[in-house]
Amino acid sequence: MFTQYFGNYLLNKGYLTAEQLHDALEEIKDARLKLGVLAVNAGYMTAEQTEEVNEAQKKYDKRFGELAIEMGYLTEEQLKELLSSQKYGHLLLSQVLVDKGIMTLSEFEKAINEYKRDYSISDKEFEAIQSDDVNEIINIFIKFEGSKNEKLLKDYIALFARNLIRFIDRDAVIKEVSKLEVYDCQFAAKQDISGAIVLTTYIEADENAFIQFASKYAEEELSSVDEMAEASVGEFLNLHNGIFLVNLSNQGIELKMTPQEVFKDIKVEKLFKVSAELSFGCVNILIQEH
Fold it and tell me: Which positions of the chain have pLDDT values less than 70?
């Protein structure tokens, strides 16, 4: 995720063009191997075992490596070895840009220092975000101005980002937050959360992005917003909110949620809209505080 944030920063600062950024990001995709792929390649896990861990992530907000150790498929030493073989995405990006002659190494160093200064990022925070610590990334870049539950909403979006990366698109990037009086939804899955904290949550998108999102989660090519597509997006929202409530329960906060519903062409009032950029389009997370 940090790779895309930093890439957009380079774009906005005029270090490269949108086409150059797109080409560079496409080039490094194959180099950013998932931990499960590395584990199978090393002979530490079977494909069936990695699938079991992936399924477990639908119930628990834990990293692949953490669950693999808990399930007895990896040792601490094996995990450390696999993690050390992963490269920071932004370093791969810089290597591509330097190799292509788009930036010099000194320009890249200058851009990194400017980035840290512009966002007031400490060395410790930078170490966290460059290794794609989603919580730290969300904490630094995402603000819910005027919210009475800002930390909780940041936790909600950080979990949403992790679930997008796990189940929908590993290149998902959380974008800006907008506080709106009214928003016209196109296609939206909705679910209410109630208890000591009351929220209404939505996943909203245009028709094409909604279909593509549903196809990714259903692992089946869909062509229209039919019952299957609606059920798929609704189930993702239900899965996400379910894990979120488990996390809160572990903190002593007990909440409940209603069955999910899907709507077309509805208005939502007094909300936060958080956009997520995916490889196939944009989806919005809408949150109403009550």
Answer: 29-33, 85-89
